[in-house]
UniProtKB/TrEMBL annotation:
Annotated EC: 2.5.1.19
InterPro entries per UniProt: Enolpyruvate_Tfrase_dom (IPR001986), Enolpyruvate_Tfrase_sf (IPR036968), EPSP_synthase (IPR006264), EPSP_synthase_CS (IPR023193), RNA3'P_cycl/enolpyr_Trfase_a/b (IPR013792)
Region span, Disordered: 1-25
Main subcellular location of this protein, as a coarse class: cytoplasm
Taxonomic superkingdom: Bacteria
Protein name according to UniProt: 3-phosphoshikimate 1-carboxyvinyltransferase
Length: 450
């Protein structure tokens, strides 16, 4: 929903060790895809562990608007799909709230069906670029009419006689890749997407599960993903693993709050998502991966994070960026508590997320007494070592859940704490965040007066 209520100020108080188990919610990326592919299958898809964050609830509402039935039945979500090409024309504007994934994947899913839909979102989503999806979707024959710079609100007119497409991504984006693959489902013949850098592959994995013909091979320009159009997707039972991007917050808090030991069970560790954890190990984190196993086709482990008083700054390889793109804000917080600089390059994409995440975190870190340098696609955090971060200040969360959670974790580990002007956006991806952190022993108080 684009309506954003009253701001919810919240303050993190320092000086309390975090101990216990933190069961984080279901994976946001997989949850969106389960609803969308469920809506495109014929028959009943059942989903367990769906993230009930606002981003995903907005996608559920959108799938209803396109004609699918989506309901919660006890612990499961049940989707009655309409089949590829079976989307009905929505009677009203589709409001994707704060969710880039929601709007971009849904645009792809409807772009090769002869219907028209108008999309909007909150003030953050209305600032984000949509040309990156509507340009490749125009190759199928779809047309898009939006505001200056390819911004929402935007009307997409689906192609009447779609053509299959072969397209090399110009940005490393799983959202763009997925939009093209979903559009390809209703184009005759083979649609091919080529990616130079591997981005999260949940769409490919789930398409296979639903019975689509999908081939992945390394070609001269990169990874080639080919999907054959007009399959009859078979409904599935889906278990959504817990979200590694949400797990990052209690794990990183455990590493930097003195005296902590936090267990975060059953976290999805798909290699296209696990870059943060590799980076933390390189920084010298006391992080262990227990009970490694497979659940629902995804690698999973229990993560144990213990306070690590001697973290070292590192240079994060740019080719790792896609596998941890949403984790740079919280990594920058850990970097502040490490010795020496942490260098992050090849991260231009951070500037077009829910906020400009380099600028947003630079402001938070500087307010807390941490030196940050930045350029168009890089930034460097000069770590102050354990106990070296003053904290203080009031973070502007800019409608960005990850900035809000990162600033609060910084506050818990700092000397003076940290307030955020609005913790409301956290509900887009991790509604239970404050409760779960409080259960570990964190002190989070309403209000921002310090
Ligand atoms: O496909 C997805 O589910 C996502 C892809 C990433 O965005 P980009 O594709 O824009 O990199 C990521 O930032 C987002 O949180 C989820
Ligand atoms: C970038 C994110 O989400 P989205 O693009 O779906 O809004 C995120 O969750 O960090």
């Amino acid at each position: 929903m684009s309506g954003h209520g009253q701001p919810v100020p919240l303050t993190a108080r320092p000086g309390h060790a975090l101990r216990g188990t933190a069961p984080v919610p279901g994976d946001k990326s997989i949850s969106h895809r389960a609803l969308i592919l469920g809506a495109l299958a014929v028959g009943e898809t059942r989903i367990r562990g769906l993230l009930e964050g606002q981003d995903v609830l907005d996608t559920a509402a959108a799938m209803r608007a396109f004609g699918a039935q989506v309901e919660r039945e006890g612990q499961e979500w049940v989707v009655h799909g309409v089949g590829t090409g079976g989307f009905a024309e929505p009677a009203d504007v589709i409001d994707c709230g704060n969710s880039g994934t929601g709007v971009r994947l849904i645009m792809g899913a409807m772009a090769t069906t002869p219907i028209t839909a108008t999309f909007t979102g909150d003030a953050s989503l209305r600032r984000r670029p949509m040309g990156r999806v509507t340009e490749p979707l125009s190759l199928f024959g779809a047309r898009a009419y939006g505001r200056e710079g390819g911004r929402l609100p935007m009307t997409v007119v689906g192609a009447r006689d779609p053509l299959p497409v072969r397209h090399a991504l110009t940005v490393p984006s799983a959202q763009v890749k997925s939009a093209i693959l979903l559009a390809g489902l209703n184009a005759p013949g083979q649609t091919v997407v080529i990616e130079r850098e591997a981005t999260r592959d949940h769409t490919e994995r789930m398409l296979k599960g639903f019975g689509a013909e999908i081939h992945i091979a390394d070609g001269p320009e990169g990874r080639e993903i080919a999907v054959t159009g007009r399959p009859e997707l078979r409904p599935q039972r889906i278990e959504v693993p817990r979200d590694p991007s949400s797990a990052a917050f209690p794990v990183c808090a455990g590493l930097i709050v003195p005296g902590s030991e936090v267990l975060v069970p059953a976290i999805g560790l798909n290699p296209t998502r696990a870059g943060l954890y590799q980076t933390l190990v390189e920084m010298g984190a006391d992080l262990t991966f227990e009970n490694r196993r497979e659940e629902g086709g995804e690698p999973v482990a229990d993560l144990r994070a213990r306070f690590s008083g001697a973290l070292r700054g590192v240079e994060v390889p740019p080719e790792r960026a896609a596998s941890m793109i949403d984790e740079y804000p919280i990594l920058s917080v850990v970097a502040a508590f490490a010795e020496g600089p942490t260098v992050m390059r090849g991260v231009r994409e951070l500037r077009v997320k829910e906020s400009d995440r380099i600028e947003a975190m630079a402001q938070v870190l500087r307010a807390a007494g941490v030196e940050v340098e930045e350029g168009p696609d890089w930034w460097i955090v000069h770590g102050r070592g354990a106990g070296g971060v003053r904290g203080g200040g009031l973070a502007q969360t800019r409608l960005d859940h990850r900035i809000a959670m990162s600033a609060l974790i910084l506050g818990l580990a700092s000397r003076e704490g940290m307030g955020v002007d609005d913790a409301g956006p956290i509900a887009t991806s991790f509604p239970a965040f404050a409760g779960l952190m409080t259960d570990l022993g964190a002190v989070l108080e309403p209000g921002d007066e310090r």
